[in-house]
Amino acid sequence: MIDWDRVNELREEVGIEDFQEVADLFLEEVDEVIERLKSTNGTISLEEEMHFLKGSALNLGFTLMGQVCQQGEKAASGGRKEEVDLPRLFKAYEDSKVEFLANQT
Questions:
Q1: For the chain, give me the number of helices (H) and strands (E)?
Q2: Do residues 10 and 22 lie in contact, with contact meaning Cβ atoms separated by under 8 Å?
Q3: Which residues form the HPt domain (predicted)?
């Protein structure tokens, strides 16, 4: 679910203090997109949202979430929005977020 090697690599790249800022910003921005996805009535671009979430997730090591977003992005770009599994995305994010926050050192 979490690629801890990626998390540690990013922590080393930016330093512990800046890493916390990166993590906080990631969670804040993703929370906003998730809420937007939950409350939308089809007025957003699923492809763009999935692309943003995928990149953000993979950058911070949220691998399962990144995979779900990649599948969603591919479906949306192919005109198959109905195949974008938002409930799976929401669960992957919540589960990953809980694991991430519980295991930060």
A1: 5, 0
A2: yes
A3: 8-105
CATH of the domain at 52: 1.20.120
Residue-wise pLDDT for 65-105, tens only, equals 999 999 999 999 999 988 999 999 999 999 999 999 999 75
Number of domains within the chain: 1
* C-alpha 36, offset from chain centre: 14
State the Cα–Cα distance between residues 71 and 23, nearest whole angstrom: 24
The two tokens of residue 9 are 């690599």
- CA-based torsion, 95, 28, 72, 3: positive or negative: negative
Which tokens belong to 58? 């993979």
Range of the domain at 10: 4-102
